[in-house]
Design brief:
The protein has ten helices and eight strands. By secondary structure, it is α/β, with parallel strands linked by helices. Strands 1, 2, 3, 4, 5, 6, 7 and 8 form an eight-stranded mixed beta sheet that branches. α5 links the parallel β1 and β2. The chain is globular. The N and C termini lie far apart (about 40 Å).
C-alpha cells in the first residue's frame, strides 16, 4: 500500500465517535464502530504506537524458538500479527492470536488473507483468561491487561510464566499511572496535550475519558513489576516509556 493510499484510508476512517455531545456516554467497548476507526484512534491516542509494534515484532522474531508457539493475547485488528508476518516472512512459526471482539478478528482475518504466510497465524475468539497456554516462547499483551479486573491479572501472569519455555519472553504494554500525585498529574496533562495536538477536541477527550472510567483501570509500573516478580519473572525491563505508557519485557530464566 502506498503512503498516499494509506493516508486516504486513514482519513476515511477518522475517529469521530466522541465528536458530538452525548447525554449518556455508554462504557467503552470494542464494537464495530470502534473497529472501523481503530487505527486512527491508536495513532492519535497512543504515543509511539507504531514504534512499539515494530520493535515488538522484531523482539518476537529474535526470541522465537522453533517448535514453540507465539501468543498474542488481545490481538485486536492484527497490527502486531501483520508486522510479525512481515518480519518472519522467511521463517516458519506458529502464532495464536486471541481476542474477544468478533469485529476485530474479522478485520484481522481480512488483512491476513492479503499476505502470503497467513496460515501460520491462528485466530481465536475467546476471553484471554480462558485460553489454554502451553509451549510458548513469546507472549504479547498489548494494552489489554488494563481491561481485565485487577483481581484476575496475577493469575494470568502466572499462567503465562508457566506456559513459557526457558528463555521465553512476555511483552507487556500498558497505560500506567504514577504513585506520586504531582508526577501523575503531569503525565496526564501531557497525555491530554498529545491528544489535542492530534486533533481531538476537549469534549472528545472528556467524553472518551468518561467512557473508559472503570473499564480501563491502569496501574503503576511498580505494581506491574511486582506482579511479574510474584508470577515468577526475575529479568524485567521497561524498554519503552512515554509519560503514562510503558512497554515491559520480562524473561523466564
Amino acid at each position: 500500500m502506498s503512503n498516499q493510499t494509506y493516508k486516504q484510508k486513514k482519513k476515511m476512517s477518522k475517529d469521530k465517535i466522541y465528536a458530538d455531545p452525548q447525554k449518556t456516554i455508554p462504557p467503552f467497548e470494542f464494537n464495530r464502530q470502534v473497529v472501523e476507526v481503530f487505527d486512527d484512534m491508536l495513532e492519535r491516542s497512543v504515543p509511539l504506537y507504531r514504534e512499539s509494534i515494530l520493535r515488538q515484532a522484531q523482539i518476537t522474531a529474535s526470541k522465537y524458538q522453533p517448535g514453540t508457539r507465539i501468543y498474542d493475547l488481545g490481538c485486536s485488528n492484527g497490527n502486531l500479527g501483520i508486522a510479525l508476518c512481515r518480519e518472519m516472512k522467511d521463517q516458519d512459526f506458529r502464532m495464536i492470536a486471541v481476542d474477544s471482539s468478533a469485529p476485530m478478528l474479522e478485520t484481522f482475518a481480512r488483512r491476513l488473507s492479503a499476505i502470503d504466510n497467513n496460515d501460520q497465524v491462528q485466530l481465536q475468539e475467546n476471553d484471554i483468561r480462558q485460553v489454554p497456554l502451553e509451549n510458548a516462547s513469546v507472549v504479547i499483551i498489548n494494552l489489554t491487561l488494563q481491561f481485565l479486573p485487577v483481581t484476575d491479572r496475577a493469575k494470568l501472569i502466572h499462567n503465562i510464566h508457566q506456559a513459557l519455555v526457558p528463555g521465553g519472553v512476555l511483552l507487556l504494554t500498558e497505560k500506567v499511572v504514577h504513585g506520586n500525585t504531582g508526577l501523575n498529574g503531569l503525565q496526564q496533562d501531557f497525555y491530554y496535550r498529545f491528544k489535542a495536538e492530534n486533533g481531538y477536541s476537549q469534549m472528545e477527550i472528556s467524553q472518551k475519558r468518561e467512557a473508559l472510567e472503570n473499564v480501563l483501570v491502569p496501574e503503576t509500573v511498580e505494581t506491574h513489576r511486582e506482579r511479574l516478580r510474584q508470577g515468577g519473572f526475575n529479568a524485567i525491563d521497561v524498554w519503552l516509556k512515554w509519560f503514562n505508557f510503558a512497554s515491559i519485557l520480562a524473561v523466564k530464566d
